[in-house]
Design goal:
Mean pLDDT: 89
Strand content: 15-25%
Radius of gyration: 23 Å
CATH architecture of one domain: 3-Layer(aba) Sandwich
CATH superfamily of one domain: Thiolase/Chalcone synthase
Helix content: 25-40%
Structural class: alpha+beta
Distance between the termini: 64 Å
Number of strands: 12
Largest sheet: 10 strands, mixed
Shape: globular
Oligomer: single chain
CATH class of one domain: Alpha Beta
Number of helices: 13
Amino acid sequence: MEAGSVRQRRGAITQLSARINFREPEATQMSSQSAYIVAARRTAVGRIGGLHRNRRIEELCAPLVGAALQDSGLQSEAVDELIVGNATEGANPARLIALAAGLPETVPAATIDRQCGSGLDAILAAVRAVTLGDAQAIVAGGAEAISTAPWRVAKPRSLQQLPRFLSPEPGSGDEREGPAHIDSSEALAAQLGIGRADQDAYALRSHLKAEQARDAKRFVGEIFPLRSNAEEARDQSSVAPDFKDLAQLAPYLRPDGTLTPGNTSSLHDGAAMAVVVSKDVWASLGKPRGLRFLAHAARGVAPDNEASAPIEAMRALAQRFEGYSASNLGVIEMSETSAAQAIALARSLDIDEELLNPDGGALARGHPFGAASSVLVARLFNRLARGENKGSGLGVATLGVAGGMGLATLFEAV
């Protein structure tokens, strides 16, 4: 093409642009605003094949969405979107949940998968949309119905082999001795000198904390029973074991290993949903007690160091939020995959163990995979927004994510 023709075309485009009244995208015109969580509820966490064994994901979540909205004082017509974190269902289960919950058909729905961090990522997506002014009210959280989720089947390497079923956990199709998080937690325990007895003792304390919290009825208003019976109001695995029983369990890996089924968490079913709103909506509701989002950090580590990822995320959070320090926190909710991981976090960051999972962690209630991180937000809401916590109004939700990632999110009670 000749140079003169190119210049003529550019001139025509310039003239056309001058005649059109271009506007900046709305998001760039709007100033950022705070995002508030005005309600958060969760189901009881159940063992795979246990409490929620016959519930499809929409059956698990639809009543929870309704309960969270009722708590918030918002009608379903006020919801701009539903965002759900999930790691096992496939497709877009958020849309099924939205319709089953009775949200208007015009309400869009999206599903996010960052493995264990999926539920928190869904809530953060809602926070970002509200902060940018793209939405005023969003229901977001995580859901995992592993008991009824589709099975994963590995394609055979040749026509002479049969297909084989895979665990819901990523990386389970290779020839590993054990899951990646077990390997990395074992390595972290050896590195920091965290022995078997320390891990078993921590696991027992986690169960005892959960038992004390249940007896004190601190989960009332947090757990939404899907049916009117006692089983639906308590986490199915939170039954305190005997220390002698813990000590007799065989290690996962080698004979001198320290990680056992008693001091690690296992995959469970469960869901947790939160209602995220703008400052204007929060004010229109009468400024109810809730959580205000302050900061978030995500960090990756080498996959073999997966257990240390929450430590790096917490360090990144401290750098991101000016004035933040562990000594200023009122509570840290962590969905730990092992006692070794939780102990390592406390030791590495010089955290008072009393601040970490004061009502028990995933060791006691189970780890509902994609919903695990949104359960942490429901826990923070219960302790901070409802006034259960006696210390600072700052709280962090943190956990490791399969593949070597860590998430840490800071909230403030308002």
